[in-house]
Amino acid sequence: MLNSMRPYTPFTPFSLFDDPFFAPVKSASLPTAFRTDVKDEGDRFLIEADLPGYSKEEVSVSVKDGVLTVSAEKKEEKEEQKEGGYLFRERHYGKMERHFDLSAIDEEGIEGRLENGVLTLTLPKKKKEEPAVRTIALA
User: Alpha-carbon distance 46 to 129, whole Å?
Assistant: First the structure.
């Protein structure tokens, strides 16, 4: 909120988002993170990420160097012309990204789907290798 006791000059740091008048603009912005749940289901992990309003073309899931990256990018532009020459134009751009360590995951078995605004990823755990037993012949 603006401090009415402090005089403003062209050199005073000021953010429009501090003013309650501009609060709707701030709340209309795209989010910078998405809610993600990770469940351990014994032999696999299940990741559920809320991405309402995102299409499959706007969501990317990739694996590189043992890291799973989920990103969602939205570009929206809306324009309305009303009577009396009024013009309303609005643009939004936002990208959200989350990273997950895959050191305990069988990367080849990862599966995913985006349905009704929820991204569901199934990450199978690596099989635990039993240590090899070697018999030593006694002399």
Answer: 22
DSSP, collapsed to helix, strand or coil, labels residue 84 as helix
Cα torsion 32, 34, 40, 45: sign? negative
Q: What DSSP string runs through 102-136?
A: -TTB-GGG-EEEEETTEEEEEEEBPPPPPPPP-PP
* Burial of 84 per CB tally in 10 Å (0-12, 13-18, 19+): exposed
Which residues lie below 8 Å from residue 20, measured CB to CB, with a gap of 6+?
A: 1
* Digit-coded pLDDT (tens) for 29-80: 445 678 999 999 999 999 999 999 899 999 999 999 999 999 999 888 777 7
Q: Are 127 and 109 in contact, with CB atoms under 8 Å apart?
A: no
Q: What's the CA angle centered on 84, arms 79 and 89, to 5 degrees? A: 15
Element holding 81 (H helix, E strand): strand 67-81
| CATH class of domain segment(s) 31-124 | mainly beta
Both tokens of residue 116? 């009704």
Prediction pTM value: 0.63
